[in-house]
Design brief:
Layout lengths: L1 H17 L18 H12 L18 H6 L12 H7 L14 H12 L6
Amino acid sequence: MRLLLGMIIILTTSCTEIFKTEIDIADCSNSDIECSYTESIHPIFSLNCTTCHNASQSSGGLSLESHNALMVNNVIVPGDSLNSKLWEMLSGETLPIMPPSGNLDDSSIHMIAKWIQAGALDN
C-alpha cells in the first residue's frame, strides 16, 4: 500500500512538472522597447491561441505556431496593424473575436499591434 501511494505521489509530481505551462513573455509595451517575435509575440500566441490554431488543428485555416505559418495565412499586413485581420479579430473590430474566451489582455493586444506596425519581423 505504501509503495502504491509513493508511486502515485511521484507520478503526480512528475506530471505536474511535465504539463506546467509557465511561459515568460517579454513585455515590449513600453514605447522604447522593440517587440521581438520570439520573446514577446510567439509566447502570447502559445499561451492563448495555439490550442486551436496549430499545424494539426488549424481552426479557420490559421496556424499561429510559427512566424512562417502566420505570414503564409495573410492575416497580417506588415507595417499596418489597423488593416491586419489578426489585429481586427484580437481587438474586437471584426468577427470572430479572438480568442473566443475574450481573455487576451490589452497589453498583449498592444504588443501585437506594435510588432505588426514595426514590420512583423521574425526576430
